[in-house]
Design brief:
about 90 residues, mainly alpha, about 70% helix
């Protein structure tokens, strides 16, 4: 039970690190963005031509990846415990 709990905790920690890193990179890029107005002055396009239609993924995917990563980590930890166990 301890191994499963540790796998769930590690999976959650890795997901938190992923979300924080993604947000941090986007935040830093936003802070450092400087538009080049002079170069873009000649390249004027209608806004209607720049619209992109599409879909986004469901946030539920993070639940599935969390469970999947926890299973992989638990299997890995069980395997390491079996290898280390003296025969």
């Amino acid at each position: 039970m301890k191994t499963i709990r540790l796998a769930l905790l590690l999976s959650a920690a890795l997901h938190v690190i992923y979300v924080v890193a993604t947000f941090g990179i986007g935040f830093i890029r936003t802070l450092n963005y400087e538009p080049d107005i002079i170069a873009e002055a000649d390249n004027v396009t209608m806004l209607q031509n720049e619209v992109t239609l599409g879909t986004t993924g469901s946030p539920l995917i993070y639940v599935f990846t969390w469970i999947g990563l926890a299973i992989v980590l638990a299997i890995g930890m069980f395997t390491v415990q079996r290898i280390r166990k003296p025969r």
